[in-house]
Amino acid sequence: MIQHSQLSSENLRSKIHSRDICFGGNKKLKIYGLLSCRSGKRMKMENRVFFADEKEALQNNYRPCGHCMKEAYKKWKKSIVNK
């Protein structure tokens, strides 16, 4: 997990281009999603974190975004209800 505030704009673009970063997340809400998600683009920089893959986000106890990752969100929601 990488904090957005710890990256320069150039470094961030480089990591996205090289696919070192594939998902973004909100550290306060513990939600992760696609970098293209309009909800993610609106969040404050100090709340934004980045992940290399979904596995990393899930290991950090983040849940999928209900807007950009509808299928993963439905699976997550169903698993929470069945507990």
UniProtKB/TrEMBL annotation:
Keywords: Methyltransferase, Transferase
Source organism, top-level taxon: Bacteria
Stated name of the protein: Methylphosphotriester-DNA--protein-cysteine methyltransferase
Organism: Chryseobacterium vietnamense
